[in-house]
């Protein structure tokens, strides 16, 4: 066998043994740390495996052997952050982009929408005009101009969460007035 190859094989063996020893020493506390961050056992197990794979692959470039525990925990935090970013991105779809797909007329209308469609446009616009502008504009853009929450956010330069809050508060203010219109109409 070539001496150079035997040296690399021995280095690889010692590296594997070192990694195994690190996991024996710090594996349990590493898993507990990940679990404390995500609070879900199966997710913690998955992230733990990802951390081990990343650490194993990066081990040859790791130089400060004395700080291996800190290094493993840093990888764990980064893996958790990556997971949270992906999760947040997925949730953002349901919070914001789902409105782009709600154009099917066969879907059941929200109560506010059905009331808005039942009332005459003139009466409704007059009722809406009584609202402060910050509440009136998002409702007009959403219900009368068919803008999505994201589009309203871009048009008004306010966050989507603020648009949602203003729409909810506007509906709360409108509800008694619209009930009067429906009762009298």
Explain the overall architecture.
- By secondary structure, the protein is mainly α.
- It folds into two domains: 6-92, Orthogonal Bundle (Rna Polymerase Sigma Factor, Chain: A), CATH 1.10.1740; 98-184, Winged helix-like DNA-binding domain superfamily/Winged helix DNA-binding domain (Arc Repressor Mutant, subunit A).
- It is built from eight helices and no strands.
- It has helices spanning 3-38, 41-58, 68-95, 111-118, 121-129, 133-144, 149-156, 160-184.
- The longest helix has 36 residues, at 3-38.
- The chain is rod-shaped.
- Residues 24-88 form the RNA polymerase sigma-70 region domain.
- This is RNA polymerase sigma factor.
- InterPro entries: RNA_pol_sigma-70-like, RNA_pol_sigma-70_dom, RNA_pol_sigma70_r2, RNA_pol_sigma70_r4_t2, RNA_pol_sigma_r2, RNA_pol_sigma_r3/r4-like, WH-like_DNA-bd_sf.
- Residues 124-174 form the RNA polymerase sigma factor 70 region 4 type domain.
- Keywords: Sigma factor, Transcription, Transcription regulation.
Q: For the record, what CATH class of the largest domain applies?
A: Mainly Alpha
* CATH level-four homologous superfamily name of the largest domain: RNA polymerase sigma factor, region 2, helix turn helix motif
Number of domains: 2
- Under CATH, the topology of the largest domain can be stated as Rna Polymerase Sigma Factor, Chain: A
Mean pLDDT: 77
SSE-based structural type = mainly alpha
CATH architecture of the largest domain: Orthogonal Bundle
- What is the global morphology? rod-shaped
Radius of gyration: 29 Å
- Regions with little confidence, pLDDT below 50 for 5+ residues: 1-7, 102-106
- Main sheet: strands, sense, barrel: none
Order of helices and strands: HHHHHHHH
The span between the termini is 96 Å
Alpha plus pi helix count: 8
Helical residue percent band: over 70%
Domain RNA polymerase sigma factor 70 region 4 type: 124-174
InterPro entries: RNA_pol_sigma-70-like (IPR039425), RNA_pol_sigma-70_dom (IPR014284), RNA_pol_sigma70_r2 (IPR007627), RNA_pol_sigma70_r4_t2 (IPR013249), RNA_pol_sigma_r2 (IPR013325), RNA_pol_sigma_r3/r4-like (IPR013324), WH-like_DNA-bd_sf (IPR036388)
Protein name: RNA polymerase sigma factor
Keywords: Sigma factor, Transcription, Transcription regulation
